[in-house]
Amino acid sequence: MAHYLVTAQATGDLPALRRRLDSGEIRALRPFGKALDHSLRGARLRPDGIVVWEEEDYCSPPLAMERAAVLDSYFGAIEVEALVAGTGWSRIDDLPALWAERP
Questions:
Q1: Do 57 and 4 form a contact (C-beta atoms < 8 A)?
Q2: Would you tell me which of 38, 74, 80, 99 could form a disulfide with 4, CB atoms 3.0–4.6 Å apart?
């Protein structure tokens, strides 16, 4: 299993993404839904408007299934940095939550 720090530019309807998270639709996706749901719920917002989160992933290339099913509808310029599990969250813990100001 690999972990990545993901950075992305929000390009889609984030309130719609939040509704999909809240409805359980993303969590139900197999085989990656639980991990993606957890990661997106914990996503943070950098001062420059870039969204960042840690993601557990097994795909090659990274996030291939997640991008096709969800991420490419809401984010562009997605970049990943391989890291040790948990270290991504610790690097972004001081940033505001993405969903703090959203429904």
A1: yes
A2: 80
